[in-house]
Specification:
Length: about 325
């Protein structure tokens, strides 16, 4: 199942593994790329040395194209330097002004994908030289900049950006979603929550159990619930005991919140995770997991089993093919 986006990015299936901070390890990224999709590694939380090691590990696991995701709210030139020195195929840019990143990446032969949540932002991204746009709708899990649904956003962005391929993100978890995204004018689907249930994803077992049991109504979008560490960054996560406490207290701001200052969990590197931190519940955390942010998109109701990343890619493509003829 290929198309112009696949040819441009050197892949065989119109599926992009959404970069997911701390739960998108080299094994998952490489597995999606080996299955014919495009794996994106969320390495923006890493120091440059660690990042280089992770990129080299991905290269050991696949000879297919893959990308690295960088967060412009924490823009770091040294991170981009490492990606370009290592010859990363694709740079994915999200959240904030890209500055000179697009120009620098392209001058080294990398392709650039910019995430946009409105057609106006997509238009600016194309003017900067983006090779593709990730149109991220409001249904998406994790940090979500806009408030427009995928259904309305994707065709609007597609109409705005002309020949530049659009990748639809937010709420897509099976072949019906992929077929719908293609029908809306996207060239591929950018899928996060479904891949949290991949065997290769280090999703904490407590988080995994909640994902597999959740319905489409079990997430909520918050402007500022988990805003310690990364403020002013709206997000979508499963409802949990922290969100219930905060709702019951009338959603007070930092400084007046119930349970503020509680240390909920400890990372393997010894870093403490307080309540309301913008953390990720990955395997290896010790402590209380349920009150941590369990990022999830509204498509979570379609995530019912753990499979390999290769099985997920194959199942989604096969199902889409039964709906739309390619
Ligand atoms: C656990 C988790 C972590 C995420 N971390 C990132 C990230 O580091 N960088 C990024 O660009 N997007 C991140 N996102 C957003 C995804 O890239 C993507 O837009 C979203 O998952 C798509 O919606 P879906 O979850 O409904 O498939 C994250 C999403 C989740 C669920």
């Amino acid at each position: 199942m290929t198309n112009a986006f696949c040819s441009k990015f050197g892949i065989r299936q119109p599926i992009v593994l959404a970069p997911m901070g701390r739960v998108g390890p080299p094994e998952l990224v490489a597995a999606v790329s080996n299955a014919g999709g495009l794996g994106l590694a969320p390495l923006w939380t890493d120091a440059p040395d660690k990042m280089r090691a992770e990129i080299r590990r991905i290269k050991e696991l696949t000879d297919k194209p893959f990308g690295v995701n960088l967060n412009m709210d924490f823009r770091n030139e040294a991170q981009l330097d490492v990606c370009l020195e290592e010859g990363v195929d694709v740079i994915s840019i999200f959240w904030g002004e890209p500055g000179n990143f697009v120009e620098r990446a392209k001058s080294h032969g990398a392709k650039v994908i910019i995430t946009a949540s409105t057609s106006a932002v997509a238009k600016e991204a194309v003017a900067l030289g983006a090779d593709a746009i990730c149109a991220q709708g409001w249904e998406a899990g994790g940090h979500v900049e806009g408030k427009v649904s995928t259904m309305a956003l994707v065709p609007a962005v597609a109409d705005t950006v002309g020949d530049v391929p659009v990748i639809a993100a937010g709420g897509i978890a099976d072949g019906r979603g992929l077929a719908a995204a293609l029908a809306l004018g996207a060239s591929a689907a950018w899928i996060g929550t479904r891949f949290l249930a991949a065997k290769e994803a280090p999703t904490h077992p407590v988080y995994m159990e909640r994902l597999l049991a959740a319905s489409e109504d079990d997430t909520s979008h918050y402007d500022d619930l988990y805003d310690l560490v990364w403020p002013n960054a709206p997000h979508r996560a499963l409802k949990n005991s922290t969100s219930e406490m905060w709702d019951a207290a009338g959603r007070p701001p930092l400084g007046q919140r119930p349970g503020e200052g509680d240390i909920l969990a400890l990372r393997p590197d010894g870093v403490e995770i307080p309540r309301y931190a913008s953390a990720v519940a990955f395997a290896g955390l010790e402590g209380e997991i349920e009150p941590l942010p369990m990022w999830s998109g509204q498509g979570v109701g379609l995530v019912t089993k753990i499979q390999t990343a290769e099985e997920i890619v194959r199942e989604i493509v096969e199902q889409a093919k039964t709906i739309i003829n390619f």
